[in-house]
């Protein structure tokens, strides 16, 4: 049974934190370790005789490596080896071994496999040295000769090659078949709108750089500290690529400095560090540079076309939504972009389409709310446009077409409190004071606009295991190979366990971030709380029953004649609910029964047969105010109210932080973020935080988050749905709509930079 793994430094709440219950606002149990630097990240683990690897990035988008000259690099004092496709250790040759648990269909990129170049910035060599400085200097001296081939990196220029994805990833739902006669209805409608939308490439920019520290022990075992959203996914990948058995590799990720989807797949620093460790029989660390963070997955460039039609009273009569997105030549990366348009509003006539264009880029990757971030944006901007065509309030239009059952499949919702989001969000914002006409609010030189949008995301549940150990001193350790990418997993799981067993929070530790712990899914898709949280609840309920039985057997037990249904765990004791004075402390139960440890294991399998009968989603209503300087085109988002329906909230504080983070990113996506490709070179050019603009403190003003009451026991036994992604969805559309309300200018491409607003 899993006890505390010392090296993980599993955090615990401060002494005196005391009793907590689900839904309270609780500070992060890992907060102190993070702000004092006690929390270690992948690049920070020390090792004896550590070697440092620096990656040499390729400079052409397509072709073959003809020559590599390493002699100058090897002559630098301290340089140990230059690893290339010509001298690397043996790796597996079949594509299947490179498929991590989230790989899309196709053939994954294989770092240093052969001389083929499939995208610009691809790793072509790893320089390994006794110091980071020597490796970095020598990396500049490696000379690579290429044979170039023609490349294509522009989505707009290549959209004629669009095709339906043939190679899909597990879990992807292609757009459903057309419903009704959407095209005919649109053609003959009096009130209709049409728009083309463009979204540029965005790159993940978590604070922490991608890094792997591979610590090799004398017996050849590899302990790898990796920046990943799943230690078990990275362990699986390393085992498969290198043909190493499961017990030869342990991957750890107790702290992750943000990832947003970029850590769903193992990145290339991981196999490169392992190659060096195997070849040189040493411990090795590889850290990518900020520029190299732009040389793997990204949110794909996407083109969309939306057509909506309505009756004069606002009833939607046609929804047509088509998207064309970019993928790589080697994999069909797919997103659910258009399906939301058939799920959000009641409409009898819907046609949806989704196509890909393969380009000479790295495969795109999931980035926070993949698909919805673009698809719901386009739909919600189109809905706003339709509201003006109807001379109708945009919120009234949404309420007019409110879906009481899922319009796509006719299923009931597991829970859907979107109406409460609209009502409470609008009241908090003061939406009823909004003038219908655009361009009518002004203060000083600034035009003011109010916009709103709806958000929607999946409420998913995977399967997970958890184990728990209660010690005689009344401290509890619950373990699962989960991940905390900054989202608050440590704290949420600790709260669930403390609440279940009535223990003070500082007595509970939740241990995650090690591939040898009980199996947990990848932290992604906003599913971790519903999944791992339910496993934690389950294992604690098993402990409850064990404790109850032991308590009943104690000599002169006050609970001897009590039923389990009539007791509760509270204040470190097991007590009769109706008579709180009749109680036995958990410590007494342990001592009285002669137990040093009480253990339980639990496998949480979702009730899929039941879940399949329901549409399971989170919802949001976003209201925002912008102030636009019409001469400079500068936009300030001065006020955002985000009303969220995401099931039961486990930790009011970290859940709110998740939504604030989503709103900040939504502002960033609407106004700032775009990676520009120079198509002559086939390369992303603004590959640094100086030129890849993100929202900074000065861009962020008032953000107000409210959670409406929702409790969903179909999605999870703890009632939670998940808040990781819903906070982003709809924000960029609300901003776009507010800019229209301020200026009368409809901008259909993101980011909405000043030149488009002027
Ligand atoms: Mo998220 S894009 O599911 O890490």
TrEMBL record:
Domain spans labelled Aldehyde oxidase/xanthine dehydrogenase a/b hammerhead: 36-150
Domain of life: Bacteria
Entries under SUPFAM superfamilies matching the protein: CO dehydrogenase molybdoprotein N-domain-like, Molybdenum cofactor-binding domain
InterPro entries according to UniProt: Ald_Oxase/Xan_DH_a/b, Ald_Oxase/Xan_DH_a/b_sf, Ald_Oxase/xanthine_DH-like, AldOxase/xan_DH_MoCoBD1, AldOxase/xan_DH_MoCoBD2, AldOxase/xan_DH_Mopterin-bd_sf
GO MF term set: iron ion binding; oxidoreductase activity
Protein name: Molybdopterin-dependent oxidoreductase
Organism of origin: Duganella aquatilis
């Amino acid at each position: 049974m899993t006890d505390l793994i010392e090296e993980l430094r599993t955090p615990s709440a401060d002494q005196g934190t005391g009793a907590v219950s689900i839904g309270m606002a609780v500070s992060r149990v890992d907060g102190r370790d993070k702000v004092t630097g006690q929390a270690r990240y992948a690049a920070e683990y020390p090792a004896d005789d550590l070697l440092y690897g620096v990656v040499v990035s390729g400079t052409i988008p397509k072709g073959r490596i003809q020559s590599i000259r390493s002699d100058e690099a090897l002559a630098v004092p301290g340089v140990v080896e230059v690893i290339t496709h010509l001298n690397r250790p043996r790796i597996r040759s079949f594509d299947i071994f490179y498929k991590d648990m989230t790989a899309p269909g196709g053939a994954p990129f294989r770092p240093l496999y052969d001389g083929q170049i499939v995208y610009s910035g691809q790793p072509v060599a790893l320089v390994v040295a006794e110091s980071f400085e020597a490796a970095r200097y020598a990396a500049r001296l490696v000379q690579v000769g290429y044979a170039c081939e023609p490349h294509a990196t522009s989505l707009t220029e290549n959209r004629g090659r669009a095709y339906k994805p043939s190679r899909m990833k597990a879990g992807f739902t292609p757009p459903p078949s057309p419903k009704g006669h959407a095209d005919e209805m649109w053609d003959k409608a009096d009130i209709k709108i049409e728009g083309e939308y463009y979204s540029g490439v965005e790159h993940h920019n978590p604070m922490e750089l991608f890094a792997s520290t591979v610590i090799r022990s004398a017996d050849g075992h590899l302990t790898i500290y990796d920046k990943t959203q799943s230690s078990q996914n990275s362990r699986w990948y390393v085992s498969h690529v290198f043909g190493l058995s499961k017990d030869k590799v342990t991957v750890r990720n107790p702290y992750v400095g943000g990832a947003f989807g970029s850590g769903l797949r193992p990145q290339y620093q991981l196999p490169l560090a392992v190659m060096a460790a195997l070849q040189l029989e040493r411990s090795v660390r590889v850290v990518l540079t900020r520029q190299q963070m732009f040389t793997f997955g990204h949110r794909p460039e996407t083109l969309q076309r939306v057509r909506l039609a309505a009756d004069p009273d606002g009833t939607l009569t046609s929804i047509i939504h088509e998207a064309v997105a970019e993928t790589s030549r080697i994999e069909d990366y797919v997103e659910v972009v258009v399906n939301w348009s058939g799920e959000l509003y009641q409409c009898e006539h819907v046609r949806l389409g989704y196509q890909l264009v393969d380009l000479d880029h790295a495969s795109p990757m999931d980035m926070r709310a993949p698909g919805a971030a673009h698809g719901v944006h386009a739909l919600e901007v189109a809905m706003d446009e339709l509201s003006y065509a109807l001379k109708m309030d945009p919120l009234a239009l949404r309420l007019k077409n409110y879906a009481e059952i899922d319009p796509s499949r006719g299923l009931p919702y597991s829970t859907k409190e979107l109406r409460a989001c609209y009502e409470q969000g609008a009241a908090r914002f003061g939406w009823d004071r909004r003038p219908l006409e655009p361009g009518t609010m002004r203060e000083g030189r600034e035009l003011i606009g109010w916009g709103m949008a709806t958000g929607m995301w999946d409420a998913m549940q995977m399967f997970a295991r958890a184990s728990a150990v209660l010690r005689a001193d009344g401290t509890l350790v619950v373990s699962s190979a989960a991940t905390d990418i900054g989202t608050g997993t440590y704290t949420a799981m600790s709260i669930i366990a403390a609440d279940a067993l009535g223990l003070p929070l500082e007595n509970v530790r939740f241990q995650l971030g090690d591939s040898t712990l009980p199996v947990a899914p990848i932290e992604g898709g906003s599913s971790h709380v519903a999944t791992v949280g339910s496993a934690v609840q389950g294992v604690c309920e098993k402990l409850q029953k064990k404790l109850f039985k032991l308590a009943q057997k104690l000599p002169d037990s006050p609970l001897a004649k009590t039923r389990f249904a009539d007791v509760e765990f509270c204040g470190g004791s097991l007590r009769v609910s109706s008579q709180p004075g009749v109680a036995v402390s958990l410590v007494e139960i342990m001592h009285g029964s002669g137990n040093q440890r009480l253990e339980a294991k639990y496998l949480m399998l979702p009730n899929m047969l039941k879940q399949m009968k329901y549409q399971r989603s989170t919802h949001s209503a976003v209201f925002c105010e912008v102030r636009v300087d019409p001469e400079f085109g500068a936009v300030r988002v001065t006020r955002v109210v985000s009303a969220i329906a995401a099931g039961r909230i486990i930790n009011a504080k970290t859940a709110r932080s998740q939504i604030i983070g989503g709103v900040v990113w939504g502002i960033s996506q609407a106004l700032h973020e775009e990676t520009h490709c120079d198509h002559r070179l086939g390369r992303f050019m603004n590959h640094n935080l100086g030129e890849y603009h993100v929202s900074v403190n000065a861009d962020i003003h008032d953000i107000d988050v409210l959670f409406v009451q929702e409790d969903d026991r179909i999605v999870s036994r703890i009632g939670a749905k998940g808040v990781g992604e819903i906070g982003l969805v709809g924000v960029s559309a609300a901003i776009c709509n507010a800019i229209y309300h301020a200026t009368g200018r409809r901008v259909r491409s993101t980011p909405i930079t000043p030149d488009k607003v002027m």
